[in-house]
């Protein structure tokens, strides 16, 4: 399995386990997971007045992602500040087959740099929420339709038989 591009796009995150490592793993799932991700063209060019891309600038929405799921407690976007957010599903107690049927809509200004972040937690009234799994996916690699999304543990190791059934739409 070869790389699609040879340009290197280094995205630096703090080292160690946790959300920072999850984001880094998610970002590099692009391009077949080979470790090389080409910079988007807007990061390689300079404007007519020598301006460069400003991730904090107020930009128009380029793409809207609608995410539907049945077994998720937290879903969000990591990217430029205008796109970064996290939303949670409602809590369902004492149900062996919980179904949320909730949709989340994310208006993305820079979808080329956005990651879909998913965390699953078990809610227990007597104790704190228990982490059950996570995944991060580059929005640029998502395809419309119903998909089986793998889950990973805190260290980024994929669970063998655990997947989330999700539907992605770009509206």
TrEMBL record:
Residues 26-153 form the C2 domain. It comes from the Eukaryota. Signal peptide: none annotated. Residues 15-43 form the PI-PLC Y-box domain. InterPro entries: C2_dom, C2_domain_sf, PI-PLC_fam, PLC-like_Pdiesterase_TIM-brl, PLipase_C_Pinositol-sp_Y. Gene3D superfamilies: C2 domain, Phosphatidylinositol (PI) phosphodiesterase. GO terms for biological process: lipid metabolic process; phosphatidylinositol-mediated signaling; release of sequestered calcium ion into cytosol. SMART domains: C2. SUPFAM superfamilies: C2 domain (Calcium/lipid-binding domain, CaLB) (SSF49562), PLC-like phosphodiesterases (SSF51695). This is Phosphoinositide phospholipase C.
